[in-house]
Amino acid sequence: MTKAPRGIGLGFRVGMAERFLEEAPEIVGWVEVHPENYIGRGGRYRDYLKRAMERWPVVTHGLSTCLGDTDPSDAEYLAQLRSFLGDVGTPWHSEHLCFGSVGGAALHDLLPLPFTEEAATLAARRLDEVRSAVDVELAFENVSYYAPQPTEMGDESGLEEATFCAEVLERTDAKILLDVNNVYVNSQNFGFDPRAFIDRIPPERVIQMHVAGHFVRDDGLRIDTHGSSVCEDVYDLLDYTLRHVGPVPVLLERDNDIPPLEELIAEVERLDAIYQRATAEAPRAAVAP
Ligand SMILES: [Fe+2]
Predict the structure, then answer these.
(1) From the CA of 105, how far away is ligand 1's center (Å)?
(2) Scanning 31, 115, 273, 277, which has its CA 20 to 30 A from the CA of 251?
């Protein structure tokens, strides 16, 4: 039976797995794994995953099935993914609302879609296709981006990012994995109100959240690195978001410069305190996992 993820989760990375599994901190409610790290792999990777599954609910988050791609889907990979998700028993799977290949060439990056009605329609179609291929609830994640959209250059023909996400949700019954750090990074780089973004997302469609740390360049540009601790403004925005959506599971992502476990756990504890406080008075019920 699938265990429901609750509260604060931690991105499960092989680099910290040994000590994390040994100590199995009580405060961590669930873990998230990238299927790409395990599909076609055995040995210690599978052993770590098995041990994690014995201890926590495990949720999957993909890096390679970009939901805005217009190239034909990779049916063979989707079949492998479906089998992996079934083995893990994940309650849902998420991928990014972006594109990552053109003309059959993989770009190895998560590139933003144009925020247009046409792109929303294409992405919704791809979401439905991937969802039926993997046979589990599917969510898309809002990404960070660095090239301005037409609306950010004064051209009113496109959509704002939050409206674009809402348009995709309107066209499919998929859910959204709301990355609060990505909302904040984009809002600072492109000058919009991050709380107004959150307000535009229907709370009942949010199935999971992400928080992470980012890097601020000397010229002020913020880069989504997952390589430092969560900043104060993102903690505040998480508090605001939880009050909007209710008790939706929140994941701390840390992929670079991974600190000692104590530091990660201190961040999880702080997130948990925010979570408990904000969801005690949540105005709206969250989506049931
Ligand atoms: Fe994320």
Answers:
(1) 24
(2) 115
